[in-house]
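Hypothesis: this fold can be encoded by more than one sequence.
Test: take the structure tokens below, design a sequence, compare later.
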């Protein structure tokens, strides 16, 4: 458990901690962004769209939330399709804004994926997510997820 988990308002002044070995070597977290080798992932997603695997940030998948399904846990539908084994879901980060909402558990990608991540409870449609990709894994092609 981290300070930002106990006191989520701290996310407005300090970034959530990350596991360095799972992210590319030159990764730096800020309160609203992930910077890899000097490249802002939020700026990169704005320029290239999502989903994407940035060349400067090899080992990361950027995706946007396209839908939400209530449940336990709630499901976040995203514009990327991937195998749960391809990502380090526990390291998923909200990019582009800071949140002071308490952490909640989400299933990302739909029932066929089944990967679980703890994210701020107010994550919703349009939010950008970054997740490290397991060494050697390759997410599949772009798709648009729909509410079912």
């Amino acid at each position: 458990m981290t300070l930002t988990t106990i006191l989520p308002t701290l996310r407005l002044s300090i970034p959530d901690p990350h596991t360095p070995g799972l992210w590319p070597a030159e990764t730096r977290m800020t309160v609203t962004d992930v910077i890899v080798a000097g490249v802002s992932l939020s700026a990169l997603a704005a320029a290239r769209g999502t989903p994407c695997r940035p060349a400067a940030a090899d080992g990361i998948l950027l995706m946007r939330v396209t839908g939400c399904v209530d449940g336990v846990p709630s499901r976040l539908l995203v514009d990327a399709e991937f195998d749960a084994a391809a990502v380090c879901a526990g390291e998923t980060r909200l990019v582009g804004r800071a949140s002071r909402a308490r952490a909640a558990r989400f299933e990302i990608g739909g029932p066929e994926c089944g990967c679980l991540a703890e994210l701020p409870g107010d994550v919703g449609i349009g939010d950008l997510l970054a997740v490290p990709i397991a060494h050697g894994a390759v997410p599949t092609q772009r798709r648009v997820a729909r509410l079912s």
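Residues 3-132 form a domain with the Lyase, Ornithine Decarboxylase; Chain A, domain 1 fold (CATH 2.40.37.10). The longest strand covers residues 60-69.
Hypothesis status: open.
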